[in-house]
Amino acid sequence: MIIGAGPSGVGAMYGLSRAGHSVLVIEKNKQIGGIARTENHKGFLFDVGGHRFFTKNERVDSLWRDMVGNQFLNVNRISSIFYNGRYFRYPLKPLEVMTKFGLWESVLVALSYLRSHLAVQKEPVSLEEWLSYKFGLRLYQRFFQKYSEKVWGLPCHEIASDWASQRINGLSLLQVVSNFFGKVGAKSLIESFYYPVCGTQTMWERFVDASVESGSSILRECCVENVFHENGRVYEVGYSEKGNIRNVQCGFLLSSMPIPHLVNSLSPPPPRNIKQASQELKFRSFIQVGLILKQSDIFPDQWIYVHDPGVKVGRIQNFTNWSRTMVPDPECSSLGMEYFCDMGDELWSLTDDELIILATKEIEKLGIAKEAVIIDGFIIREPYAYPVYTINYMKHLEVVKTYLNQFSNLITMGRNGLHRYNNMDHAMLTGLLAAENVLGEHHDLWNVNEEKEYLEIKSS
Q: Is the pLDDT of residue 246 over 90?
């Protein structure tokens, strides 16, 4: 049995089905794909966030290509940072930064970077320390601090450096400048990526279809309530379906649900210290306000990072520039206004209509489009979107991890099942490896993506 049909759950389902095993997947949503799914609103397709198909893992890459085939587009990456009323290309371009900052500010940025490297440095503990060391305090404050604090809802000195060392390792001000001058070995973010013509949903549905053809099945809009165990083995799972509780026996359980939910569902319950440690693992929630505009050309980017503290939106996706097929009316565009929040906070508690009004006003305030051209909107809420790397998260994770590893037939996987901010290729890989563990292998899923190199960095 598999809990969750996100990239890891789909990967595990496919791997076990192809090996001849009968698999039952329980998914709480109507749509599969987790936070990498595609929602359809009146024929307009909206990804829940943007998901680039790029991976260094040849196995995952081969599977993706087998499933999508000639339905992959090769998209030239264009992304920007909106800061202080101006747009800066991201990855940062030294000449553009110097031109828009001015000579004196550029000199101060360079001096700030040199100061950070000449000073005696300890191993960075917080995100603030890591980014200040890599880019200098001045550039960190301008291009990284405000956006990071929007995303995580915490000051950067309270966020562990693990996030940056995993996601953007290898990039620094020196690397950006080296790449600009064509230095051999310099690293930069990828400049193009593959993307399915009709959005990410194409990928996950094809994996599930292939698994169902092999004899497996999936239950949608069902929620796991209880995981029954005895003598270090899970033997039964209880789930709710349209208000009815059903229990199903299982030989193996592969879980991609958030770790605190898994711990709370265990019956009998775990020791108090395990439950307490699991509750210290925090998650950041996500709201996407999908807007449809009666305007065909909005901006050239796939997405924009919004560093302006005067608006609440954190990032804006332009789905027209991912794939024109996602927008059925050639006279229209569709934008995804992304808001980062916590469940129950002021933003999360706004009604759908209030969120659409907020996004509409902010689009005009940013100078992107007039309110008058916005003709429709809808809301996507994702309560457990991002595992948060608080300063002490690893200490609590190790306590829970040690306890869960005692179960002989329970495997956790995926972004939420491992409390690890992986991209979808590594999430899917954990599912494929989890399937192999069921078949007798001994992969350590907790260390997938432990090479600490951002998945979308290339060496030039």
A: yes
* Helix axes 201-213 and 58-68, enclosed angle (nearest 10): 90
C-alpha distance from residue 347 to each of 307, 351, 424 (Å)? 18, 9, 27
Bridge-based pairing of strands 86-89 and 410-412 is: unpaired
User: CB-side exposure of 54: number of CA atoms within 13 Å?
Assistant: 17
Q: Which two tokens stand for residue 149?
A: 């604090």
CA–CA distances in Å: residue 201 to residues 32, 34, 205, 315, 326:
8, 10, 6, 21, 12
CA angle 46, 10, 222 (to 5 degrees): 80
Q: Supply the pTM of this predicted model.
A: 0.91
Q: From 42, 146, 56, select the one nearest 377 (Cα to Cα).
A: 42
H helix or E strand, kind and range, residue 39:
strand 38-41
- pLDDT of amino acid 20: 95
Q: How far is CA 190 from CA 32, 235, 252, in A?
A: 27, 45, 39
DSSP state letters, 117-161: HHS--PPP-BHHHHHHHHH-HHHHHHHTHHHHHHHHSS-GGGBBT
For residues 218 and 32, give the distance between their C-alpha atoms in angstroms, rounded to a whole number: 10
Q: Could you tell me which of 446, 408, 396, 414 has the C-alpha nearest to residue 258? A: 414
**Cβ-based neighbours of 7, under 8 Å, separated by 6 or more:** 33, 34, 36, 204, 414, 424, 425, 427, 428, 431
Instruction: Tell which residue, 162, 107, 157, 154, has the closest CA to residue 132.
Output: 157
Nearest partner of 298 among 199, 364, 225, 386, judged by Cα: 364
Classify 347 as helix, strand or coil.
Answer: coil
The answer to whether the bond into 268 is cis (omega within 30° of 0) is yes
Alpha carbon distance 26, 82 (integer Å)? 40
Question: Cis link prior to 91 (omega < 30° from 0)?
Answer: yes
Q: pLDDT tens digit string along 212-245?
A: 999 999 999 999 999 999 999 999 999 999 889 9
Residues 253-291 pLDDT 10s: 999 999 999 999 999 999 999 999 999 999 999 999 999
pLDDT of residue 50: 82
User: Which amino acid would we find at residue 363?
Assistant: I
